[in-house]
Design brief:
This protein has 358 residues and is of the alpha+beta class. The protein has a domain of 240 residues. The protein contains 14 helices and ten strands. The strands form four sheets. Strands 1-2-7-4 form a four-stranded antiparallel sheet, sandwiched between helices. A two-stranded parallel ribbon has the order 3-10. A hairpin with a 2-residue loop joins β8 and β9. The longest helix has 22 residues. The mean pLDDT is 94.
């Protein structure tokens, strides 16, 4: 395939991606060693908490050729998930409500993005066949393989990795998902990277409720509310329970204050719309979900990752931080005895209300 055909294919991929609902597409090379070095330093510092899988695959995360032999470039796509306003400050201020990170309020994004990527992959394959280039090979990734996808997206020109370690786009902020197609086609382009525009801004570092952002571009997962409420399988350390507030699954604080999210774009994708009222639901109602309720209402949802006990653990802490109310203790007591993990956090929550001078 010659250069003119590669240029035509890139143009077609941009066109097809837009038709499929992606908000942007770019092309990265496979040279991720610098990002791999930063990951190794982060792991050596023990900042990955109990996420042992982050160190499990050696250099595979920054060596795409180990994920798909013959990979010469990576097609990187992003799709906005913000359904309406950026994360609601009103919910954070109303301690009777449960705050759930925006990305998790709708259907799990993996299947949605993978379906779109398959269609994009098919169009590329047909193009190659029409041009008598029969050797097209590829692998789709939707957070489904050990790849430094933010590094790939940065090299593809989709944004820059900000001080909060999230990818930020100057025209769309950071409320978006990523996906990739590894391919043997030499699609990478030079000079497409966005410059880092964080400048002197420290908003994300200053606002983090648990001071998890130790400094620019350095996140301590052990302190991060997203880790504590999702990946963490044990107790939430007591020193972080008050700062957790009413955040019961994830945390958007560093995105809420990011100046670039003034430009966050909305998406009409049905799958990303909030389900079961999870953008504005009472803590007490959520806490009283049975295990059957949890399984039914989190089917196809990222929330399932926390598990039922983790869900109750998180809400118990949030109820401990809620304004004192006559019903709160009775609600908490209804879930006692399910597990020692949940009981520990219920007891803590009950103590907060019994010690409340009001």
């Amino acid at each position: 395939m010659g250069q003119s055909e590669l240029r035509e294919l890139r143009e077609k991929i941009h066109e097809w991606a837009e038709q499929l609902g992606f908000c942007q597409v770019g092309f990265s090379d496979t040279k991720l060693e610098d990002h791999g070095k930063r990951l190794q330093d982060w792991l050596k510092a023990g900042l990955n908490a109990d996420m042992k899988y982050m160190a499990k695959y050696g250099n595979m995360r920054w060596t795409p050729g180990r994920l798909k032999s013959g990979t010469k470039s990576i097609i990187s796509v992003r799709i906005n998930y913000l359904e309406k306003e950026p994360a609601s400050k009103r919910i954070l201020k109303d301690r009777s409500k449960g705050f759930i990170s925006k990305y998790a309020q709708g259907r799990d994004y993996h299947r949605t993005i993978r379906t779109k990527l398959k269609l994009l992959e098919k169009k590329i394959k047909l193009f190659c066949e029409e041009k008598n280039f029969g050797g097209f090979e590829s692998r789709l990734i939707t957070d489904s393989a050990p790849l430094l996808e933010k590094a790939v997206a940065e090299k593809a020109g989709l944004g820059w990795i900000g001080k909060n370690t999230l990818l930020i786009n100057k025209n769309s902020g950071s409320y978006f998902f990523l996906g990739e197609i590894l391919t043997n086609l030499p699609l990478a382009e030079k000079g497409k990277e966005q410059p880092n525009l964080c400048g002197k801004c420290q908003a994300c570092i200053k606002t983090c409720p648990t001071q998890a952002i130790l400094g620019p571009y350095t996140l301590d997962a052990k302190r991060c509310i997203s880790y504590l409420t999702i990946e963490n399988r044990g107790a939430i350390p007591e020193k972080y329970r008050k700062p957790l507030g009413n955040r019961i699954f994830g945390c958007d604080d560093c995105q809420i204050v990011c100046p670039w999210n003034r430009y966050a774009k909305h998406n009409l994708e049905t799958d990303f719309k909030p389900r079961h009222g999870l953008d504005n639901e009472d803590l007490e109602k959520l806490f009283l979900w049975s295990k059957e309720d949890f399984n039914q209402k989190t089917a196809g949802s990222a929330i399932r990752r926390a598990g039922y006990d983790g869900w109750l653990r998180n809400i118990a802490v949030a109820l401990g931080n809620a304004e004192k109310g006559s019903k709160t203790a009775n609600v908490l007591l209804q879930k006692k005895g399910l597990s020692s993990l949940v009981d520990e956090h219920i007891n803590w929550a009950l103590d907060q209300h019994s010690n409340d001078p009001t």
